[in-house]
Design goal:
The structure is a single chain. With 220 residues, the protein is an alpha+beta fold. It is 41% helix and 10% strand.
């Protein structure tokens, strides 16, 4: 009886440790295949509803829209849209990605903002290193992002993802050197280059924005 009492008291002293912030867990973390397959979209409740407030007649729809969660697409590559080298890489992926698994977004567009908030990054971060948001609990930067994108391509292109076994510091050193000099070597434009090649815009989540119609509400 005494032993049971002591055991019960010991259990009562155990306190669960608070979970770390979500953004701190996302970097470089890939969920199990079953979890990734179960989540097609990324849902973010950016503005949790506060205490109910009276609204004028006819204002119910506006109130619901103001508190609706943001729904984002998975497997989105966010890149520097004015960079000629980056644009060539995106066009290569589009040609190779016959099953259209990868979507794209220029970091200069407003459509990129919810993704940046999700992972705790800003535009300057993506201008240094491309960002690939794979799912609700996985995102990647730089060389890892590029190779993760390759892993979704059909053979023989997916073989490039085997370079993930090369230590990240070595891969990123080469990536950062090219990224730092990309404007000098390949040039840049004054606006997102994809606006001049509208035939590939269907793969972009910011398509309507690029065409001058504002942010694409179908993705938000």
């Amino acid at each position: 009886m005494l032993a049971r009492t002591l055991a019960a008291r010991a259990l009562l002293r155990v306190r669960p440790r608070p979970a770390p912030p979500l953004a701190g867990l996302l970097r470089g973390y890939a969920p199990p295949a079953s979890a990734a397959a179960a989540a097609d979209d990324i849902v973010i409740d950016e503005d949790p509803p506060g205490p109910a407030a009276p609204s004028p007649a006819g204002g119910g729809a506006a109130a619901v829209a103001a508190t609706a969660p943001t729904v984002l697409q998975p497997r989105v590559l966010i890149y520097d849209g004015v960079c000629h080298l980056c644009h060539r890489g995106v066009k290569w992926v589009i040609r190779a990605d016959k099953h259209a698994k990868i979507r794209f977004c220029c970091v200069q567009s407003k459509a990129a903002e919810p993704y940046l908030r999700l992972v705790g990054m800003d535009r300057e971060d993506v201008l240094r290193r491309v960002l690939f948001v794979e799912g609700p609990e996985a995102y990647y930067e730089g060389s890892t992002a590029a190779l993760k994108v390759a892993s979704y391509l059909p053979l023989p292109y997916s073989v490039l993802s085997s370079l993930l076994f090369v230590p990240a510091p070595l891969r990123d050193a080469a990536y950062d050197y090219i990224a730092k000099n990309r404007y000098d070597w390949f040039g840049k434009d004054d606006e997102c280059i994809v606006t001049k090649e509208k035939e590939i815009l269907e793969r972009f989540i910011d398509r309507d924005e690029m065409l001058g119609g504002g942010p694409n509400s179908s993705f938000f």
